[in-house]
């Protein structure tokens, strides 16, 4: 039986994590033995990992994600110093060299500095998958024949230290993007890695999503209003990429056009205070509602009228796919990779990314019941699970 190891941070709620669950629930365990190495064995999605999967938590590797103060208290001064050095370097380059993704480069430098203080895994694997960057654990600490590093974002929007970044990606045998547009963005940035670059789209379990959408009643949180009232929903981390800080202004623009909407947001993250301040600034306390972090977002998707992803950029939004599986009309903004997400006018609508244009696009969909019906019906005849993508992984293993 061939052996696979998958490396990830944790199983808290997120798009990459939902996709990972979809992958784990699709693997043929009569043919493959799977270890899941988590930096922290925690998260709401842990309970959805199939019983055949062997979950590994390495306390030494956990030091890569624990607060630095906690690492110092535990006496792991070498890794604490390595991470602090990486954090200071990232902060400096973010300010001086204008690298625009501070989170990405902080993790990259911190992990890179820490590797020499971590033990290697002795077990031999046929295939290793690092499901979220940076990929140093897979490339430097795990013994496997084939190494896959995953990309979940649009690299054309990320400005980082290309030399160090190239070195990391080059140690992977294959670089996996979740969409063709995502791959193109990476290939343009790193043309010398193009031969290693492939596409494996997010795998999702339709049965799992439908089943989970029935588990709880959320009518006390997403309430049906008057006949013409419309409930919008967005899901994602509270970060720059998701653009949730502009929702209050977009929502006010919709209200000013005479439509009655409530816009619910599920998620958590560093931009929470910014979003709250924007809600107050535009007087949207009664119309933009933060629902916080939800262990099971599917009943909320089922309860909404229209799902909206107003992102500045995306790799490929898992939440959009989940909304389509639940047969919701979907609106996304015209970010760089939007056309790989849906077919405009067939199973969703692409609207301008500026606040005014976005509001107008949402208003047009709300008013046009015929288009809404068309979008819903087309999601019913479309397969969004991408189960065939698993064959690409099998082909790499068996080839």
Sequence-ordered SSE layout with sheet pairings:
Layout (H helix, E strand, L loop, with lengths): L1 E7 L6 H10 L7 E7 L15 E4 L1 H4 L5 H6 L3 H20 L5 H13 L9 E7 L5 H6 L1 E9 L10 H9 L3 E4 L2 H10 L7 E3 L6 H7 L17 E6 L11 H10 L4 E6 L5 H10 L6 E5 L5 H6 L2 E4 L8 H8 L4 E4 L15 E3 L3 H13 L1 H12 L9 H9 L1
Parallel strand pairs: 1-2, 1-4, 2-3, 4-5, 5-6, 6-7, 8-9, 8-11, 9-10, 11-12, 12-13
Number of domains: 2
Going by CATH, the homologous superfamily of the largest domain would be Glycogen Phosphorylase B
Strand residue percentage = 15-25%
Elements, N to C (H/E) = EHEEHHHHEHEHEHEHEHEHEHEHEEHHH
CATH names the topology of the largest domain as Rossmann fold
Number of strands: 13
Order of strands across the main sheet: 3-2-1-4-5-6-7
CATH architecture of the largest domain: 3-Layer(aba) Sandwich
What top-tier CATH class of the largest domain fits best?
Alpha Beta
Query: How far apart are the termini?
Result: 15 Å
Question: Low-confidence spans: pLDDT under 50, at least 5 residues?
Answer: none
Secondary structure tally, helices: 16
Main beta-sheet strand count, sense and barrel state:
7 strands, parallel
Structural class by helix and strand composition: alpha/beta
Percent range for helical residues?
Answer: 25-40%
Mean pLDDT: 93
Q: Could you walk me through the main structural features you see in this protein, from its secondary elements to its overall organization?
A:
With 399 residues, the protein is α/β, with parallel strands linked by helices. The protein has 16 helices and 13 strands. It has two domains: 2-57 and 120-203 and 387-398, Glycogen Phosphorylase B (Rossmann fold), CATH 3.40.50; 207-380, 3-Layer(aba) Sandwich (Rossmann fold). Helix content is 38%, strand content 17%. The strands form two sheets. A seven-stranded parallel β-sheet has the order 3-2-1-4-5-6-7. α11 (272-281) links the parallel β9 (261-266) and β10 (288-292). α4 runs antiparallel to α5 (102-114) and α10 crosses α14 (355-367). It is globular, with a radius of gyration of 21 Å.
């Amino acid at each position: 039986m061939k052996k696979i190891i998958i490396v990830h941070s944790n199983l808290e709620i997120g798009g990459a994590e939902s996709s990972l669950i979809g992958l784990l629930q699709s693997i043929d365990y009569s043919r493959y033995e799977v270890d899941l190495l988590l930096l922290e064995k925690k998260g709401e999605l842990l309970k959805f990992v199939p019983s055949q999967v062997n979950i590994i938590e390495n306390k030494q590797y956990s030091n890569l994600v624990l607060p630095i103060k906690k690492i110092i208290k535990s006496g792991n001064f070498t890794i604490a110093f390595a991470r602090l050095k990486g954090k200071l370097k990232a902060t400096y380059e973010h300010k001086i060299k204008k690298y625009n993704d501070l989170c990405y480069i902080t993790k990259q430098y911190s992990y890179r500095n820490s590797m020499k203080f971590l033990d290697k895994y002795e077990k031999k694997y046929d295939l290793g998958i690092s499901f979220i960057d940076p990929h140093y654990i897979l490339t430097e600490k795990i013994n496997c024949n084939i190494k896959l590093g995953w990309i979940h974002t649009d690299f054309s929007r990320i400005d980082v230290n290309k030399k160090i970044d190239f070195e990391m990606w080059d140690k992977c045998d294959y670089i996996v993007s979740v969409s063709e547009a995502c791959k193109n963005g990476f290939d343009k940035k790193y043309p010398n890695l193009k031969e290693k670059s492939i596409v494996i789209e997010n795998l999702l379990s339709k049965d799992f999503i439908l089943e989970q959408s029935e588990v709880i009643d959320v009518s006390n949180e997403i309430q049906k209003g008057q006949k013409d009232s419309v409930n919008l929903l967005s899901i994602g981390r509270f970060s720059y990429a998701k653009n949730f800080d502009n929702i209050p202004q977009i929502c006010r623009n919709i209200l000013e056009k005479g439509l009655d909407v409530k816009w619910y947001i599920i998620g958590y993250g560093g931009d929470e205070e910014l979003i709250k301040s924007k809600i107050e600034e535009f007087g949207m306390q009664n119309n933009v509602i933060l629902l916080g972090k939800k262990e099971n977002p599917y009943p909320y998707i089922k309860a909404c009228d229209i799902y909206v992803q107003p992102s500045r950029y995306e790799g490929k939004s898992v939440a959009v796919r989940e909304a389509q599986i639940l047969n919701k009309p979907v609106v996304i903004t015209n970010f760089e990779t939007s056309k790989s997400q849906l077919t405009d006018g067939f199973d969703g609508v692409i609207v301008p990314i500026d606040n005014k244009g976005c509001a107008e696009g949402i208003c047009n969909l709300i008013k046009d019941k015929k288009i809404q019906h068309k979008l819903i019906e087309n999601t019913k005849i479309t397969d969004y699970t991408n189960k065939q993508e698993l064959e690409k992984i099998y082909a790499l293993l068996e080839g």
